[in-house]
Amino acid sequence: MVSTTLLREAALVDGQWRAAADGRVFDVTDPATGAKIAAVPLMAEADTEAAIAAAAKALRPWRRRTAKDRAAVLTRWAQLMTEHADELAELLTTEQGKPLAEARGEIGYAISFLTFYAAEGQRVRGEIIPATAEDSRIMVLRQPIGVVGCITPWNFPAAMITRKAAPALAAGCTVVLKPAEQTPLSALAIAALGQEAGLPAGVLNVITGDAPAIGRALCASPTVRLISFTGSTEVGKLLSAQCADTVKRLTLELGGNAPFLVFEDADLDAAVTAAVLSKYRHSGQTCVCTNRFLVQASIVEEFTHRFTAAVGKLAVGNGKQPGVDVGPLIDADGLAKVAAHVDDAVHKGARLLVGGAPHALGGTFFQPTVLADVTPQMRVMREETFGPVAAITSFDTEEAAVELANDTRSGLAGYFFTNDLGRAWRVAEALEVGMVGLNTGFLSVEVAPFGGVKESGLGREGSHHGIEDFVETKFVHIGGISSPGAAAGS
Ligand code: NAP
Hints:
Layout: E1 11-13, E2 16-18, E3 25-29, E4 36-41, H1 45-64, H2 67-83, H3 85-96, H4 100-120, E5 127-129, E6 137-144, E7 147-151, H5 159-171, E8 174-178, H6 184-197, E9 204-206, H7 211-220, E10 224-230, H8 233-243, E11 249-253, E12 258-262, H9 268-280, E13 290-296, H10 300-312, H11 332-347, E14 351-354, E15 369-372, H12 379-382, E16 389-395, H13 398-405, E17 413-417, H14 421-430, E18 435-438, E19 457-458, E20 471-478, H15 484-487
Parallel strand pairs: 7-8, 7-10, 8-9, 10-11, 12-13, 12-17, 13-16, 15-16, 17-18
Antiparallel strand pairs: 1-2, 3-4, 5-6, 6-20, 11-19, 14-15
Helix pairs in contact: 1-7, 2-4, 2-5, 2-6, 3-4, 3-6, 4-5, 9-10
The structure holds NADP nicotinamide-adenine-dinucleotide phosphate.
NADP nicotinamide-adenine-dinucleotide phosphate binds next to helix 7 and helix 8.
């Protein structure tokens, strides 16, 4: 159970905590124990339309406010989240499963977007462009796009809320946000603090419930001008198709299949430490988690030996217990996918070095696993496993490594370790991804543009780039500006 005053079992629409129009609810459970934590509204089309109407009504007064005024609300919100950080972290671990230390880290990351965009919203500048005629002027305005629909995943229940809402609200947009069904409680708690910080009614609406119905209503609405989605590539494609009819802008942060390349000139200790972090953080359930380890043939044995030893020391358990490194998977479907990937690889000839099965703790716990000698024909190499399974293969040359790394329709994150300066440039430029970790296994910071290429998405979140999608460009051509002499008739 959770001990927080921030637990909400209602959705936030037009400044009010509401039930679904038809009164339906669904349960939220703790993935570590299976116990019910709360029940939240199972909303659908009618509730979504009410939330869109509230966001539309709130838009004009909110966008009229000065950026500085909006920044003050975001800053107060960040302060309140900081004051409640421990409660928010506990709630996050309870509904989501990640170790408390990681949950605390995520709350800090979530707060960083509020702080960053409070400032960045005040830097959305227009332009004056030199005109092509003496009596005209050309001005470019940068204005909020309007009502924004946000749909977020379960793996970052707090950070994905503010990574979208903070730039949207800072730019002067209003928001209808739907969190994932497994983890709505963090979103609702964060929204409650936003309300306390002074967000006016309707500026941020959080609705929970039937994803396809809510998604359809958001996409079909001509009032909603942008869908900002983080989640699977499959659902991202569906939303793209659904948005075609109203020609909406889309920000898509989708799935990855991250390669992690280790060259023979790398610092092997640093590479192993980073490899463990980038693979087993959050039980392998982040979009930027390494999915494929590609190691130069001359060092693959040594790397695999050291990596497997480190993985064997990881502690599995309930994220609330001290010292736990790897928590449960989010649900039974997640566990089944991980088990299927391991079975497929072993069946096709991969060597199982450690783990390989559900953990003795039961439920959705899975053993940290290492597979060697994987091949491109195996699912672990082609699909996002989203679990604590490392797949290792080897390469001979830099060209072969890059070719293997790019042999995927995904292009989110890629990592590589080398101490050769020329190679560092060549490989960073050649990897077909939106984000590169060079001699590091960690990427996510609010000041840098997060996002993917190929089927991993469109647009960027975080940094000054992350506010761009929430802003429209309008050009004003001003005529009839005669010179003073002309006006005097000379
Ligand atoms: P998901 O199944 O696509 O769900 C993401 C969100 O979309 C949830 O809120 C879900 O709602 C909603 N959704 C599902 N079907 C929908 C539909 N037909 N219409 C509208 N919304 C719909 O993904 P997930 O399993 O939660 O998250 C894991 C995926 O997200 C992985 O592929 C991961 O790589 C990706 N991800 C990407 C990033 C990034 O920044 N690129 C970050 C984190 C995660 P319900 O939960 O209610 O079904």
